[in-house]
Amino acid sequence: MSETTEDRRLMLTQNVMNMLESWGLTLEHIKSIMGLDTPLRRMDRYRREAPFPDEPEVNERLEHLVGIVEGLHTAYPRNPAMAKVWLQRPHRKFSRRAPLEVMVFDGMEGLIYVRAEVDCTFAWEATNDGFRDAAGNLPH
């Protein structure tokens, strides 16, 4: 039996829901992070039977969350519990707010900001683009 795109998306949705809940987020927080227009009473269905909507903004948010998870895994390869601690502790780079708070309350910009802090490859690409000249070249 082959796995369909919908099956893979449902599995991704369930994994993301489990991960966000393991970080201590409520359904309301998850709704905010994912930028969903779903009524709060229907959010539970993403845990069981429904994939996240296949929309560009939701997909971009998923991409940033996966980047954050990968960055945290790189930062704490032997102690995954430290990832949760890092996410919940106030951080000087976020004006003494916890990264989770930034992701919940600052929308897409918050996800990008947290990802840039924890995912060095993402931050490298983002900052290097800022240093390019009009022709797209990096300075010497």
Beta content: under 5%
Unreliable segments (pLDDT under 50, ≥5 consecutive)?
A: none
Share in helix: 55-70%
Please give the domain count: 1
Major pleated sheet: none
Structural class: mainly alpha
Average per-residue pLDDT, rounded, comes to: 88
Q: Sketch the topology as an H/E string, one letter per element.
A: HHHHHHHH
Cα Rg: 17 Å
End-to-end separation? 54 Å
The helix count comes to 8
Overall strand count: 0
Features:
140 residues, mainly alpha
Question: How would you summarize what this structure contains?
Answer:
The protein has 140 residues and is an all-alpha fold.
3D architecture notes:
- With 140 residues, the chain is mainly α.
- It has one domain (5-131).
- The protein contains eight helices and no strands.
- It has helices at residues 5-22, 27-34, 45-48, 56-75, 81-88, 99-105, 107-118, 120-131.
- The radius of gyration is 17 Å and the shape is globular.
- The N and C termini lie far apart (54 Å).
Describe the secondary-structure layout.
Elements: H1 5-22, H2 27-34, H3 45-48, H4 56-75, H5 81-88, H6 99-105, H7 107-118, H8 120-131
